[in-house]
Write a structure and sequence with these properties.
350 residues, alpha+beta, Immunoglobulin-like, 2 domains, elongated, binds protoporphyrin IX containing FE
Length: 350
């Protein structure tokens, strides 16, 4: 075999081995939360979970520090997100599990009076049915969905705040179908109580984001479900509860949920994958433009044993996958090159 061909093949083979070694070294990125030493969230038992984010009972819970990532997977992406890190505590009683989520935020964004205002928000995500394995972090996938409890600042603090609160000097002539007198300012809820709902089109179409009555009934924490981003919808059972407090430049949000979920029960000592997302309204974050965490392992009472997670479920880094694929391709190419050269030599070329 000519010197040049031999060296080329050797170089290719070495590069292939190097790429595969790189992918092998990046293996932890594919591993489950517990194998990656991501923080475990262990809930402490109490007689009754608190309903106030400032309740002294939260001192009984061991805080976990949750690293947040800017959402760069789906368009529109964010290069940098407002929330960088969450401090999370968990408590539970016989019926419910409650988490307290805290993070610094220099600006309280809680009313959406104008179209250019966005809310601060935080969400807790868990698998809809853990027996199917941990769903992808990208809000689940077809056949393996997630449940999301989403606290929205405006549903607590700004539910009735809209345009006339943002522009107090605005003048009202007549909102014909609102049910209020001419010259009076109409609120969204007027259409639902005194007027004609069909003229509050989004609410009439069942959009909870536009319906103050639903928001009042549900409270600041809305339960949602999805089987991958783009499929998010309100859950048919609204069983979340919660309350937020903005103090000293930080949010303190309590989100509580029943241990009895539709498809499983959160049991003591059992591993429960949880993930978080946070929105900073002052940075125009909304929908997919947010900070999110990888899956972390929660459990009630004591740390759960590590659970194997199906490949790709732990939010494996695209870089590691790319590395592995590149490694295999390069090794393959080197093998083909070497084989061809060998065949050439046997048939008397070299
Ligand atoms: C890489 C991971 C993620 C990607 C690519 C992603 C992407 C998206 C996209 C494209 C939307 C808008 C479309 C829709 O409504 O479905 C969205 C909305 C939403 N996502 Fe995610 N997401 C991710 C992780 C998460 C996590 C971990 C949670 C919860 C802990 C979450 C909770 C939500 C919520 C509550 C909304 C609606 C927000 C709003 O009303 O402003 N997402 N996400």
């Amino acid at each position: 075999m000519k010197v040049l061909e031999r060296n080329t093949t050797r170089r290719w083979a070495l590069m292939g081995v190097a790429a595969t070694a790189l992918a092998w070294a990046a293996r932890p990125l594919w591993k489950s939360a517990s194998a990656q030493n991501l923080p475990a969230l262990v809930a402490a038992r109490v007689g009754q979970v608190p309903t106030e984010p400032t309740d002294a009972a939260w001192a009984q819970a061991v805080p976990a520090s949750i690293m947040m990532l800017p959402q760069t997977v789906a368009l529109p992406r964010v290069k940098e997100a407002g929330a960088k890190n969450l401090t999370v505590r968990a408590l539970y009683d016989a019926q419910r599990m409650a988490v307290l989520i805290e993070w610094p935020d220099v600006h309280q964004d809680a009313d959406l009076g104008t179209v250019m205002q966005y809310r601060d928000g935080v969400a807790v995500m868990l698998p809809e049915d853990p027996s199917k394995g941990t769903p992808p972090i990208t809000m689940g996938q077809g056949g393996n969905g997630v449940v999301i409890y989403h606290w929205k600042s405006d549903w607590q603090f700004g539910r009735l705040k809209d345009v006339d609160e943002a522009y107090p000097n605005m003048y009202a002539d007549w909102y014909q179908f609102s049910g209020v007198e001419a010259g009076q300012m109409a609120e969204a809820s007027d259409y639902l109580t005194k007027g004609r709902k069909e003229y509050l089109t989004a609410a009439a179409a069942g959009n909870h984001l536009a319906d103050p009555q639903v928001q009042e009934k549900v409270g600041p924490v809305q339960k949602m479900r999805s089987e991958g981003f783009g499929t998010l919808e309100p859950h048919k059972t609204q069983d979340g509860a919660g309350k937020g407090a903005y103090q000293d430049g930080a949010w303190h949000i309590l989100v509580s949920l029943p241990r009895e979920q539709e498809k499983f029960t959160i049991r003591e000592g059992a591993p429960l994958p949880v993930a978080f997302a946070a929105w900073d309204g002052a940075r125009n974050e909304r929908d997919g433009q947010k900070a999110y965490s990888l899956w972390t392992q929660a459990s009630l009472g004591q740390p759960a044993a590590a659970t194997p997670t199906p490949a790709g479920a732990g939010g494996g880094s695209p870089l590691a996958i790319l590395g592995a694929v590149a490694g295999i391709i390069v090794v393959g190419a080197a093998a083909v090159l070497g084989f061809r050269a060998l065949r050439g030599r046997r048939s008397g070329g070299g």
